[in-house]
């Protein structure tokens, strides 16, 4: 299943009245949408408010979403419109250099986003990134290779199993354990 | 923290799109039910973003709670079923068959045009003229067809009482001209500006009497 198919399955459940399926979509995309909105707004509280508003608008518009585009492309457009409307309402001029949603999905916007980040936000982001990198380096070779094949190279479990000459179940277990090890180091930062 | 095989499958399904033998729907059900599993799902997504050096905003983890709280007071959205959206449900569909209404209106307009048209053209210089038509001059068949049409229209005028219409619409008479002007003004000021569509609402506000 591709990421788009996973999202579409969640969307269809949400369209059928399963609100918790929509919650999973929010959990999945809240970071990316907030990062997108932080391109336009510097204040963290405003970024969170507008991000929340974008998801609420998406939920209300969900019956009309027919899956002709990826869910992320759709929510991306809603988020852009929401933040622009917010800025107009605040008598602020929204920037006109939008990145097309399809392009944004492909490109790394990290550099552009970091340009707009406040020092505090940037420091925390750097600390989190360093922690993840340290945790990755501390992993046993087989776990590190498995998680990198998956997250960096985007390989399927079957492809990883072939590359690592092991069963798919072993790949699943290695990726799971790699995430758990990274999560163990990350959680104090996120929840502290 | 549990590390059961089922948890592995559920997270693999939702984070990586690799549902395995347990199936995708079971994974969604499990993650929806289990708050701890949901939190691990969220952090798993975040870990992937950080490994790919994608932008992250840790404070955004509060958004999901805010969205859930806001939606708690709203009705659950439901996509209408195909049957409903195609207008076949008994509850929402109009008892009027729209295509049939359209056809009936079109037929009425044709009937009005047939009755009123010859009257409008009488004395206005708009009568079909066989002599002035280049087609008629060059094609004897067309001359015959036009003559038949003209005869048919004349016969129809003799059957339909056309006197009031001729009086109202004769353009060489001031009354008719005024009525037509009023109709055009009505049309421009009311019908087009109000966005009226269809013959019946149009006729309700625009009439040939010149009375507004």
From TrEMBL, chain A:
Residues 25-92 form the RNA polymerase sigma-70 region domain. GO terms for molecular function: DNA binding; sigma factor activity. GO terms for biological process: DNA-templated transcription initiation. Pfam families: Sigma70_r2, Sigma70_r4_2. Keywords: DNA-binding, Sigma factor, Transcription, Transcription regulation. InterPro entries: RNA_pol_sigma-70-like, RNA_pol_sigma-70_dom, RNA_pol_sigma70_ECF_CS, RNA_pol_sigma70_r2, RNA_pol_sigma70_r4_t2, RNA_pol_sigma70_RpoE, RNA_pol_sigma_r2, RNA_pol_sigma_r3/r4-like. The keyword Amino-acid biosynthesis does not apply. Residues 132-181 form the RNA polymerase sigma factor 70 region 4 type domain. Belongs to the sigma-70 factor family. ECF subfamily. This is RNA polymerase sigma factor. It comes from Lamprobacter modestohalophilus.
Automatic annotation (TrEMBL), chain B:
Residues 11-86 form the Anti sigma-E protein RseA N-terminal domain. The chain crosses the membrane at residues 100-121. GO terms for molecular function: sigma factor antagonist activity. CDD domains: RseA_N. Keywords: Membrane, Transmembrane, Transmembrane helix. Pfam families: RseA_N. InterPro entries: Anti-sigma_E_RseA_N, Anti-sigma_E_RseA_N_sf. This is Anti sigma-E protein RseA N-terminal domain-containing protein. It comes from Lamprobacter modestohalophilus.
